[in-house]
Structure formats: C-alpha cells, structure tokens
Amino acid sequence: MRSDDEAVDGERELPLVVRDVLVHLLLRDLAAETSPGAVAHACRLLDADDAAAAEPAAAEDRTLHDARVAVATVRRTTTGRDAPPGLARRARARLDAYARALVDAPRGESLPTRLAQAAQLSVHGLFFEVHEVLEPAWRVASGDQRTVLQGVIQAAVASYHARRGNRAGARRLAASALAKLGPAPDVWHAFPLGRLRHSLSDLIASVDGGGAVPPPAPERTREGTDG
181: domain CATH number? Predict the structure, then answer.
C-alpha cells in the first residue's frame, strides 16, 4: 500500500486541464458537504466500465453533474494518442488523496475554516490544493491578514517545489514566506504558524547544507470550523 507522499508524488505531471477539474471537485466538497460528495461521485464514475456514464445530463444534482464533467475530461485526456502512460491511474490516485483529506477536513468558507482545511491538506501532501483553498481569502484580505495569508500560501508553494525537486525555487519561496510570517503570532485562527516557521527554517537549512529537503507542513488541526 502506497503512502500519501508516494500517491501524490505520482500526480505531479497531471495536465493542467485535469488538475483543474479535480481541484474544482475538492473545493466544492470543502465548501458545502453533500453525501456523497463530488469527489466520491468522481471515484465511482472513474471505476465504472461504461464511459457514457460519465457524460453530464441536462438536469441533475449539481454535485453529480460536476463529477461527471470532471470524469469526462479525465477520460478524454487520458485516451488521447499523446496521453502519458498511467495518466488515468494518477488522476484516480489524486482523487483518493482528496477523499482521505476530506475525512477530517472541516466544511465551510470562513477564514479559520479555510486555514484548518489547508492544514489538513498539507498533512496529505496536497500543497497545490492549499494554494487553491487559501487564495480566495487572500484576494479579499488586507493589511497584516493579507501578508500572513500570502506567507502561508508561499510556504505551500515552497513545499510543492521541494516535492518536485526544485531546490532553488523551494528555498526562495520558503525565505519569502518566513519573512512574511516572522512577526505573526505562533497560533493564528488556530493555525500553527510557529510550527510552520520552524519547518520553513529547516527547509532553508537543508537546501543550504545540501541535504534532503523536507516539505514544510503544519500538523493536522480540526479547529476553526464554521460550525
């Protein structure tokens, strides 16, 4: 059985169109819980033998409709003549990682909830998705709040680069994130900024020392939900 790191590592070459439709399903499930959610629907549809089952219908539940659109996109992309080998398997593995993260991730769109979601996604190595979850909050923020959010996002992107072996990019973004997070409290809306700063420092030291680069990630938290 593969670890979360191994599963997510295999997804780093997903085509942009596939990555975007899958992330959309995750964001839908994080914003408003449904049973089953869009990710669960997509997993079921990908496992089905009937390709026609993935085609969206004119009038149906929006969650299922979005899952069908995503799966149809994955199938069109993975069956093309130039599709990389194993692309369908990698798309399915990404959905599996989403399903695991959704088990404990809170639902909602408040800032504390988005931060708790980001922490949970980081636990599962979903660093690109952390950026997607926090960007809406960053866009409407101002002042110190905007600076801290940008730092957390940059830390996630640094982790993404570290996973892909881009040591220079990881170090540059980690240093920028650390500068933005430096004046912030150790805990912010229940999010462990102090622990994240420590991880960023470790990443920078590892790059400078030529060692293995550990992606910075806060421990999971279930606080800060919308209730």
Answer: 1.10.3450.10
